[in-house]
Amino acid sequence: MKLHALLHFYRQRVRTHPAQELLAGAGIAIGVALVFAVVVANTSITTSASEIAHGIAGNARLQLDARSEHGFDAGLLRVVRSLPSVRQAAGIFEQRAILQGTRHTTSVALIGVDASIALLGGPLTQDFGSQREGLIFRDGLLVPSGLASAVGLTAGGPGEPRTTVLRLRGRADRVPVAAVIGSDVIGKLSGSLVVVGRRDYVNRLAALPDRLTRIFVVPRPGQDEQARRELEAMANGRLTVAPVGRESAILTLASAPNDQSTSLFAAISALVGLLLAFNAMLLTVPERRRAVAEFRTHGYTPRQVVLMAAFDALLLGTVASAAGLGVGFVLSRTAFHGLPTYLAFAFPFGVEQTVPVSTIALCFAGGVVATFLAGAQPLLDLRPDRAPDDVYREEGEPGQALNAALRRRMGLASLAMLALTTVVVSIKPAATILGVALLATSMLLALPALLDVVKHALERVARRRARLNMLIVAVMAVRAARVRAVALAATGAVAVFGSISIEGAKRDLVNGLHRSFVETVGIADLWVTTGGDDLTTENFIPGDTEARIRRVPGVQAVRPYYGGLLDIGDRRVWIVARERSDRQMLPAGQLDTGNARQAATALRRGGAVALSAQLAAATHVRVGDMLTIPTPTGDHRYRVVATLTNLGWGPGALIVNAADYRRDWNTDDPTAFEVDVRPGVSPAAAKPAVQSAIPPSVALQVQTAAERVARYDFLAGEGLHRLTQISLLLLISAAIALAAATIAAIWQRRAAFLDYRYQGYATRQLWSALLIESSIVLITGCALGAAAGLYGHLLLGRWLRLTTGFPAPFDLSLLASIGTFGIVVAATLLAIAPWSYRAVRTPPGRAELS
Amino acid sequence: MSDGLELREIVKHYRGGEVVRAVDGVSLGIEPGELVALYGPSGSGKTTLLSIAGAFLAPDAGTVRFAGRDVTAFSASERALYQRRDVGLVQQSYHLSAGSTAIDNVAVKLLADRVPLAEARHRVIPWLERVGLGERLRYTPDRLSGGEGQRVALARALVNEPRLVLADEPTAHLDRRRSRDMLALLAKIAHERSVAILVVTHDPEAAAVADRTHTLSDGRLTSGVPRDLLAVPEGAATLGGAQP
Ligand SMILES: Nc1ncnc2c1ncn2[C@@H]1O[C@H](COP(=O)(O)OP(=O)(O)OP(=O)(O)O)[C@@H](O)[C@H]1O
Ligand SMILES: [Mg+2]
Prior knowledge:
heterodimer; A: alpha+beta; 10-stranded mixed sheet; 6-stranded mixed β-barrel; 27 helices; 56% helix; elongated; disordered C terminus; B: alpha/beta; Rossmann fold; 6-stranded mixed sheet; 4-stranded antiparallel sheet; 24% strand; globular; binds adenosine-5'-triphosphate; binds magnesium ion
């Protein structure tokens, strides 16, 4: 067949059935867009983090890490360089800091380097030895251009450098910006949240002179193992020796629970998108089968028919997938944009989004293949044992048949699949993605049989009641086009299912996180912190702040609070250290195993630790066992007294008593003050007094517990907000697809409506029959979707708790589910109503001509 | 004033590019108990006239009266009532609801008039038997032959026991014997139940059972059977019933 002939037939198709073609295309595009947006939003985080790590470390293969932000003596670098198997070594001093610009305030990684860093050859720092020498030896910061424009720098006077405010360790300094580095020098890293300065200058800003936090080591060729041993010996259990690239490994693990949950939801969205595309194509199947029969009776060979179908699918798939990629790109830029901030403070992320070509190619190919698969069904009519026009001899409207035996078999398969889902997921919670896919399939298989049951039941109810005659007419219409009814019901079912299960699990997670925040933050009335968007891990020099606050009228008690991040294995663990005098040593509501009261007593006594269940599993300890914690003063053993949820921090958390922390971490620098107010004094009223007691030279921020919880809720919600967007998108696209498909089908049936009018049916009767018909299909589909969605929610929630360790107590939330169901049904019916009214009123001539 | 159907000076022109004078001043009366056969070449306006009689189409000029009432002046609801109570219509291209049985397809007519389904099914069965489909009661349209489907449509037109039957080529898909049976059935209904029946047909047999025959050509009505039909030998043999 010639190309122009293929094109001619395709044009003809599109001209005669524009609605179906559009619908099929829209279904595929929506599927591709969903998958693409979610995949992009996920990969870009990890990609940019590993690029930053490589940008600094260059050729280094080993690193020596401090176990706290206080670092170690810079003199150690000379010792490392003198080790026999070390060829090159360079040290950096890294601190978490806050960049307070004119437009925006953000957490950044502040990295102090000296010229020797250039020896490592990292793309980010290789120039520091040569051209940038001038810059690096001035006081001031090098700021990537993306970051600079995001936060907004303050212009300097004539001949003066620009400045910005840097908040570090409880101090706020206006610092000069030595240079803004653009993408011409550091490429994509120009968008990273990293600020660089001369090492001794950064030491001075942090008031930690002559300290380093990390030494990068390039071993002599072939001597990695020796170098590692020599470093270990030197570290003496107080520093951690690790391969370079561990940073990205840690990030991968840190974001894993988050990634896992988003990928699970992404997988579900992909599934839903795919099913939507399939349903859209299913709607066109009868018409495509008739076209195949038509061509066959006119003497076209099966080969030619296959060629035409393949050509159609290729064209439709290409256009739809391209449109889907476009929409997905816009979505990932807007709706899904924004980093999961609750990770940002522990890792120097980029603000640039990187979209690997492979992702684009994969999504595109996926869309085209899905179109082929979905469009292949009519080709089954080419089987040699079938007459070319068999489609016209089937029950119902041509191509709409689904015989009774098949419907029954599908129903049985559905039940079997439901049972299988339950078994698989209860044995292996990790197989939840598979379980949810099985559940969705089982739901779809149940639809034909369920529609039969509904039709039968409705007919029984209506057959002796003349008032319900239009219900009978509606049931007859549903029966006349089974494939269409199933496809429409399935679209509604899939959308409601996806939306309810995703939203339900998300709501559980948001509620669980909120409760966890309330428990961890609610132990004090006011919090005095550095004000970073963090889990209270940025330490500061306390000075006499504690005494000043204590003297504020209305203040009853002030306690230092210590927090931090510590790498245990490949996990960046959140450390929480509390004073004995705290109201609550551990959040009892987050308990997994152990006894809350005994655990609290043990923690107060000291030498005890409560830790996240996932962390306990990773370190192979249980309640009663001893856990070795790699602290800055060496490895120390703590007794495990309880296991907890992850307290909202993916890699896990551990709680110790403040006295133990001060001793083993060898620091008195708190990360917060917890302030209790006297009975009768409101925290909000005490807040300004406490704030004004803090000297202006100390950059500390006072928040009420409620404000702090709200901030955490916001940070956690930001990442989870994506899920709401996904499910909202699902609902909207499904309602549009449903309405469009139904309207297209109704429009085609105008001749049939006219026939009813010839039988003496009034417009009003026909209209109500038509709306009832749509309602039967929609309500059956969406109700099944809601039921399956609730089960899916249960499975997802269980998976969240068991696999990720996030606090996510199951909450049925029937009302929200009914709301989702109601919205889809109501929105679709509302869209259909005026069109169906027009359709049933079509005057004779016009409908007959069409 | 007649108790049957009275068409007076009916005019219907279709406009769209050039004007088609589908019906051009036709007057025709059919008394209760009378079967009238309407002949005419394709495109002569037969279906158009029938649609006007059934109030499915409004004429440009002229009046339609049934049982003394002016059908052309009916409101939409009066029209629907007229169509479901008084009229039984067999369309040229009838439509049956796929997936539903012959019984339910015929019952559709009664459902419109608020007869409960259970009762409607009872009332349908004798009519299906009368058109010779007693063995096919629960067949769905895909399993019915073309002629069987047409007879379902005929049963549907008769089941509400209308006072006016408008049938547009009801025997087009039937063999000679069946065709004669169906026309005889219509004649019997007309005579026994005092129903006014207008049958559009190309079938020479119709002239044999009809009380009167007319021919429509180019929108104008003449009495009698068209000449070319007379040329058909079998048709000619049965023309005795026709009144010139
Ligand atoms: N809706 C319409 N718009 C324009 N012209 C029409 C319309 N319906 C019918 N016509 C024209 O009016 C004329 C009469 O049509 P009608 O259907 O009444 O013919 P008919 O006698 O029933 O023909 P047949 O025996 O082929 O069924 C035809 O020329 C037809 O093309
Ligand atoms: Mg006609």
